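Reminder: ligand-aware prediction takes two inputs, not one.
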Amino acid sequence: MVKAKIPSCGHCGKNAEIELEYTRQNLCSSCFSKVFEKRVRKANHKFQMFKRGDLVVVGVSGGKDSGALLYILSKMAGEIGFEVKPVLVDEGIHGYRNKALKEAEKLCEKRGLELEIFSYKKLFGKTMDEVMKARDEGKVKGKACSFCGVFRKKALNQAALELKATKVAIGHNADDVAQTFLMNLLRAEGERNERFRIVDKPKKGFVPRVRPLVFNTEKETALFCLTNDIPFHLGECPYSSEAFRAEVKGFLNETEEKYPGVKFNLLHSFLQNQEWLDEKTGKSGEEKEMRYCEECSSPSSGRKCKACELKEKLGS
Ligand code: SF4
Ligand code: ZN
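Here is what comes back for the chain with iron/sulfur cluster:
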């Protein structure tokens, strides 16, 4: 009988259990975790995300991305000298967020951190389920994620302002960044790619968001959670099938199967585009001609911010 040869870890020589995407490197689970964490440190270094004395709100959802993020940032906090504060935004999606919340609570307990919860109901007067009911009754028009995205961004910023945070870390991985970049191109909304940054530009009234998982893929993030016993919820939001993102994600995954490396190439193009924009407009300059919502004083492109406009339409 011919025994199949088990590949050995490219770092330590033990039996490999994981093959990295893109580089096709074989690694054992312990070396894989080190590589994964090293990429987060690389992102921090390259984009100058965290500094001593920062108070970092970590947006947690109970899913794998934010689970991996909180796990690593709570380690880096002690090394660099910043503080992490996990915040969960509860959209009010029955059968989904309430289950994910339990996993987020488990992880926070394990890491000795206290979870803060900010709900759409309290902030905007309606749960996502109620928003969808209003939409189905014809009171508002639009897709679930376009309402939800506006409210989530505002809720996280609100949480960060209330907690006096200096940064908001979100669990966007390499797949998410590539998808967003492509979605903006496909919608002919190229100006969104000018604002979409790995680290947001400073803006009065807006706590900058940072994306430390930018160099790790979605699959690798799930593997990192599994190898490090990080609890996470696997279920999907019942409204996610309405999202354009779901289409783009499916397309990119299929294309990646046929032409390995396309996702990474897209991410690379995004980063090149960002560097080019930084050279053109300056890296840290505050955005010019910013307006502020006359209802809530949040940065806004119009008279009222999108969240306040939506709240008004919903009559809440
Ligand atoms: Fe909200 Fe859409 Fe995400 Fe569901 S899939 S939580 S509706 S943004
Ligand atoms: Zn507003």
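The chain has one domain: 40-313. The chain has a mean pLDDT of 92. We will return to this case in the review session.
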